[in-house]
Amino acid sequence: MIDLVVLCTAAFLAGGLNAIAGGGSFLTFPALVFTGVPVIAANATSAVAVFPGYASGALGFLGELRSFDRRMLLRLVGLSVVGGVAGSLLLLVTPASVFNWVVPWLLLFATILFLLGGRINSWIVSRGKAESNGWLTTLLVSIYGGYFNGGLGIVLLALFSAQGMRDLNLMNGLKNVLSFVLSAASVLTFALAGVVYWKEAIVMMVAATVGGYVGARLARRMPVAMVKLIVIIVGLVMTTVFFMRSI
Predict the structure, then answer these.
(1) Positive or negative torsion for Cα 124, 235, 197, 209
(2) 31 with 230: CB under 8 angstroms?
(3) pLDDT over 80 at 103, yes or no
(4) pLDDT, tens only, 198-219
(5) Shortest CA distance to 54 belongs to which of 164, 158, 145?
(6) Among candidates 142, 136, 166, which has minimal Cα distance to 156?
(7) Which one, 58, 68, 230, 241, has the greatest CB density within 10 A?
(8) Which keywords annotate this record (predicted)?
(9) Residue 159: other Cβ atoms inside 10 A
């Protein structure tokens, strides 16, 4: 019962965070590890838990997405599928001991990205140059997303800025579409490999969906800066905890 409460609470809060500012995986992944799920299975199950929210997020930007070049969109989607599968397969062949060592560094990286995301995007925009090898970086970002979902939204927004995009609504729509696609590829790979803890995943999916709805309503009332501060604090605390576990 305690485990169920922990998982539901973490997923509910994660859904709310993702709706407002992102960073929900900082809660779902540690909660699964806390309840005894092995780290690699916890990462896979966490990806399943937050997966539905990306679809609803993408639907909110249909107008912008319809105006986007269809061939470019298909290319980005295709790269996301390939990268999502490659990243999830990389996770599956990573020894648990290695992943235990890598996790705190990934959490720290994601936390720093979340903290500096706005500055990173502003710096890229100030350069005023579109990236020439967009397909390669899109593939690499997708591999990262398939391997470890934390901070993916920030990385994608920075990627779009580097490719010369300036419409924030379009960028957010693309971010949700690619997150959904590569997460779908990862979830399918994890499911076929049998590493997902489905009982925990289904419970967390429901809680995260409810949390996302509540978070979307709260987003109009709660200062985003406050929510971002909470996400950063949670990220730093979780990073410290996992560094201590890896010692």
Answers:
(1) negative
(2) no
(3) yes
(4) 999 999 999 988 887 777 667 5
(5) 145
(6) 142
(7) 58
(8) Cell membrane, Membrane, Transmembrane, Transmembrane helix, Transport
(9) 24
Q: Residue 36, class by beta-carbon neighbours within 10 Å (0-12 exposed, 13-18 middle, 19+ buried)?
A: exposed
Check: CB of residue 85 under 8 Å from CB of residue 145: no
Q: Which two tokens stand for residue 147?
A: 């391997």
∠ CA 166-74-206, nearest 5°, is 85
Each residue's pLDDT tens digit, 10-40 = 999 888 777 666 678 888 999 999 999 999 9
Q: Distance of CA 216 to CAs 116, 178, 212, Å?
A: 23, 20, 6
Residue with the two structure tokens 């997923």:
11
User: Looking up tokens 């997460």, which residue turns up?
Assistant: 183
pTM: 0.82
Q: What are phi and psi of 163, to 5 degrees?
A: -85, 5
- Per-residue 3-state assignment (H helix, E strand, C coil) for 157-177: HHHHHHCCCCCHHHHHHHHHH
